[in-house]
Amino acid sequence: MESYVSGARGEAVSSKPKVVLGVSGGIAAYKACELLRRLTESGHDVRVVPTDSALHFVGAATWSALSGNPVSTEVWDSVHEVPHVRIGQHADLVIVAPATADMLAKAAHGLADDLLTNTLLTARCPVVFAPAMHTEMWEHPATQENVATLRRRGALVIEPAVGRLTGVDTGKGRFPDPVEVFEYVRRVLARGAAAATTDLAGTHVVVSAGGTREPLDPVRFLGNRSSGKQGYALARTAAARGARVTLLSANAELPDPAGVDVVHVGTAVQLREAVVKAAADADAVVMAAAVADFRPAVYAPGKIKKQGDSGAPTVELVRNPDILAEISAERARPGQIVVGFAAETDDVLANGRAKLARKGCDLLVVNEVGERKTFGSEENEAVILGSDGAETPVPYGPKEALADRIWDEVVRRVTPAHADPRE
Q1: Which of 132, 268, 364, 406 could lock 175 by a disulfide, CB 3.0 to 4.6 Å apart?
Q2: Angle at the Cα of 239 (from 286 to 136), degrees rounded to 5?
Q3: Domain 18-195's class?
C-alpha cells in the first residue's frame, strides 16, 4: 500500500490526489460510503477520518475496507507519525461529509478535540463541508453564523438539499446526492491551486439550462434537443468557485447539482417568470437554456386526432418572449452581467456578433452545431464574444472546461452587489 503520510518514515509517496474524508456523527454517514467508493475508484488516495459519533452509524472496518487506508479517530494512534498534523498537511483536499451542526461549530471556533478537528486546523488545501441536519438546526442563527464564518475564511460549504429527513420530516438539510458531491469535489480538485481562491464568493449567479417545451395538446409538444448538460456544468463550476447558484432547469433529466438551488420549469413563459424573479438580486445571469422562439397559439385540451384523408391540421404559432433581450435591456441592478448562448450552423462568428449586438448582453457564447458538437454531448467548443470586443476561443473539451472559461470572463467583469446572503 502506498503511504498516505508523505515522508513520515521514508516510505514511497503516493502520486494519487490525496483526499481526507471526514465523517461526523449524522445518519447521513452511510451516504458517505458511496462518495468514498467513487473517490477511490476514480484514482484518489482517500484517508477516512471519522468522529467517534460517526462510528455509531458506520464502523471503522467499513471505512478501512473501502479506502484501503487505516482509520482512526484519536490523535494518540500512531503517535510517531504525528497524524494530527501530517494528515492535514499533506492533503490535496479535505471534505467533511456529512458535516453536522456540531462539527460546523467546532470548525468555526477552531476547536481541536479529536483527529478530524485537528486535521481541519492543519489543512492548507481546499476544505469542503457538506452539511446534513434537520431544517431547524440548519436555519438556526448559530449554525448560519458558523457557516458564514467558515465561508469568510475560504472554506466551501455546500448548501444542503431539500427533501426527506430523518423520520417523517421534510425540508432543507438533506445530504445532497453523493454522486453530485463527488462531482463537486472533482471540480474543486481540478482547479488545483486556484481552488484556494473562491473568486465567485459573495455573488449570486443565475443559470438557465435545458430546453423549453411548448405543449400542443396533452400528449405532444414543440421542443428541442438540448440536454441541459452545459447549463448544469455552469452551475456546478460556479458552486465550486463559491457562488450562490440558482439553476432554472427546463426539462433536463439530470440530478440536481450539489449545493445549488434548482427551480424546475417547462415552457418559455414559465422560464421567463423564473428568470425575472431570480435575477432580481443576481450579480450574473447566464442563459444557457435553449428557449423555443414560438409556441402554439391555441392549446388543444384533448389529443389532436387524425382527420381522415383531409391532411394534417394547421398549427398557428405565436412568438415567445425574448428573455435574453429583455433582461439585457432591463437590468435588475447596475453592473449585472448577462451572458447568452448562440448555436449556429454557418457563419458562426458573424452571426454571433450580430446576435450579441441585437440582444445587448455582455457576453455571448457561440458554438457551432455539427459533427461532435451536437446537443447531448459531454464535450463542447465555443468562442466567447464580449460586448467590449473581446473574443476568447475555447477548444474542444469537457463542458466543465468551457464553463470555467465562461466564469473567468464573468469574474473579470462582475462587481458583487452585496455580501453572500448565506453569510
Answers
A1: 132
A2: 120
A3: alpha beta
Confidence at 8, pLDDT banded by 50, 70, 90: very low
* Dist. CA 278–CA 209, nearest whole Å: 14
Q: pLDDT at residue 411 above 70?
A: yes
Please, which residues have CB within 8 angstroms of residue 405's CB and are 6 or more apart in sequence?
384, 392, 394
At residue 423, does pLDDT exceed 60?
no
Cα–Cα distance, 345 to 367 (Å, whole number)? 9
* pLDDT reported for residue 2: 40
How many helices (H) and strands (E) the chain has is answered by 13, 19
Q: What are 250's three cell numbers?
A: 427546463
Residue 266 DSSP one-character state = -
The packing angle between helices 32-41 and 60-67, to 10°, is 20
Q: What's the pLDDT band for 51 if we cut at 50, 70, 90?
A: very high
Question: What one-letter code names the amino acid at 412?
Answer: R
The letter for the amino acid at 198 is: T
C-alpha distances in Å from residue 381, one per residue of 146, 256, 347: 41, 24, 16
Strand locations in 139-240 (E): 156-157, 161-164, 170-174, 204-210, 214-215, 221-222
Q: Exposure of 415 by Cβ count < 10 A (0-12 exposed, 13-18 middle, 19+ buried)?
A: exposed
Amino acid (1-letter code) at residue 196? A
Query: Domain limits of the chain?
Result: 18-195, 200-413
Residue 8 to residue 86: CA distance in whole angstroms: 8
Q: Indicate the SS3 state at residue 349.
A: helix
Please give the grid coordinates belonging to residue 367: 458554438
Annotated binding site for CTP, which residues? 293, 303, 321-324, 341, 355, 359
Average pLDDT, the chain: 88
Q: Which CATH superfamily is domain 200-413 in?
A: CoaB-like (3.40.50.10300)
Omega before 395 within 30 of 0, i.e. cis:
no
Q: Do domains 18-195 and 200-413 have the same CATH topology?
A: yes
Could you list the residues known to form a binding site, using ranges. 293, 303, 321-324, 341, 355, 359
User: Measured between alpha carbons, how far is residue 74 from residues 50, 95, 195, 389 in Å?
Assistant: 9, 18, 29, 58
pLDDT-derived band at 223, boundaries 50, 70, 90? very high
C-alpha cell at 214: 411548448
Quote the pLDDT of residue 214: 96
